[in-house]
Amino acid sequence: MQSAYQTVKQGGIVIFPTDTVYGIGCDPYNKNSVSLLYKIKKREKTKPFPVLGYSKKELEKIAEFNSLATKIAEKFWPGPITMILNVKDADIQKSLGLGKKIAVRVPDNICALSLLKECKVLVGTSANISDETSLIDPNECETKIPNYD
């Protein structure tokens, strides 16, 4: 995971396992990386990417957690629950092209968490071309997803 972290740190795009499907991601603060990820996935920029975090504590730096969101996070994270909350980090809001909301979650996968331990937060979306089937086989990632690092 150290090499994946270095790739993210240098502005690259990485594919990694999550608790649901394979994910593809980048540094959410790097506008060029985010733009490249939109191109790789052939995704409309009107569909913002979610952000994965190592912990609720890390995600509290970028999103506003009210009492209900805190209870949900404490009960279901790490896990496959994504919450849509008010964004509070202006830099991430700008780099991701967000409105007032941000989708966040803490995945329940040792590999993803190992990467997130270093990155703290990461754009984390399904490793597929938009509107195509999500990938669960790492070999498919190499053949169906172009231009990742």
UniProtKB/TrEMBL annotation:
Protein known as: L-threonylcarbamoyladenylate synthase
Q: What is its EC number?
A: 2.7.7.87
Q: Where in the cell is it found?
A: Cytoplasm
Q: Which family does it belong to?
A: Belongs to the SUA5 family.
Cross-referenced PROSITE patterns: YRDC
Q: Name the catalysed reactions.
A: L-threonine + hydrogencarbonate + ATP = L-threonylcarbamoyladenylate + diphosphate + H2O
Task: List GO molecular-function terms, semicolon-separated.
Answer: ATP binding; double-stranded RNA binding; L-threonylcarbamoyladenylate synthase; tRNA binding
For the biological process aspect of GO, one term held by this record is:
regulation of translational fidelity
Q: Per UniProt, which keywords does this protein have?
A: ATP-binding, Cytoplasm, Nucleotide-binding, Nucleotidyltransferase, Transferase, tRNA processing
Report the InterPro entries cross-referenced here: DHBP_synth_RibB-like_a/b_dom (IPR017945), Sua5-like_dom (IPR006070), TC-AMP_synthase_SUA5 (IPR050156)
A Gene Ontology cellular-component term: cytoplasm
Residues of the YrdC-like domain: 1-149
Q: Which PANTHER family match?
A: SUA5, THREONYLCARBAMOYL-AMP SYNTHASE
